[in-house]
Design goal:
42% of the residues lie in helices and 17% in strands. The chain has 8 helices and 6 strands; from the N terminus they run βαβααβαβαβαβαα. The protein has helices at residues 28-45, 56-59, 64-67, 90-97, 109-122, 139-151, 159-167, 173-178, and strands at 10-15, 49-54, 75-79, 101-106, 126-130, 155-157.
């Protein structure tokens, strides 16, 4: 199955970028920076956003840098299951927010990102993983998760490629608004 990113069919699903977990994530500053870029681009391009928080009591809320960049209308979903798909009520919210192609990113790559992406692939969604906006405590776990998801049919790309693919062309007001995110 070929995956073509376009605005009309793409939503974003951000997983568990939370206060007490992110300090332990390999390259956490880059993960946060790229998540913020994706949130700002989603706002500029009017893309629907759903974000999750895993066991908030223990791990805390979404980190402030990312939370403050969330576009208006972003939907929050609290969970305790590693795969969002195992959480009661998730599909109801997902169907209200999502489109046929979902850009997934967050933590940890080898647990929540992996299991959610794999389950959504099995259910027929087209999955794109923003690899540089995702992370694990151990770099090797992140790399193995990305490699396995690619072999299962997900498209694994950097944030900048995802955003420019959604833009499709330069010389537009959206391009001018997005350009500073990558300078």
């Amino acid at each position: 199955m070929s995956i073509r990113l376009n605005r009309e069919e793409t939503s974003l699903l951000m997983l568990d970028l939370q206060e007490r977990l992110l300090p332990f994530i390999h390259r956490n500053e880059a993960v946060i920076q790229n998540a913020v870029r994706l949130m700002k681009a989603a706002n500029i391009l009017s893309l629907p956003v759903l974000y999750t928080e895993q066991y908030v009591k223990g791990i805390g809320s979404t980190v402030e840098e990312v939370r403050s960049a969330l576009p208006e209308g972003a939907r929050r979903f609290e969970k305790v299951c590693f795969s969002c798909c195992d959480e009661p009520g998730f599909f109801k919210v997902l169907q209200e927010v999502s489109l046929p192609t979902i850009v997934i990113f967050g933590t940890e790559s080898h647990v929540c990102v992996f299991t959610t992406a794999e389950d959504l692939l099995d259910k027929g969604w087209k999955i794109v993983v923003a690899a540089d906006a995702s992370g694990s405590r151990d770099r090797e776990n992140h790399l193995m998760a990305m490699e396995t998801l690619r072999s299962h049919g997900a498209l694994i790309l950097p944030t900048e490629t995802i955003v420019y693919r959604l833009l499709r062309k330069a010389a537009t007001p959206e391009f001018k608004a997005v350009l500073p995110l990558f300078k």
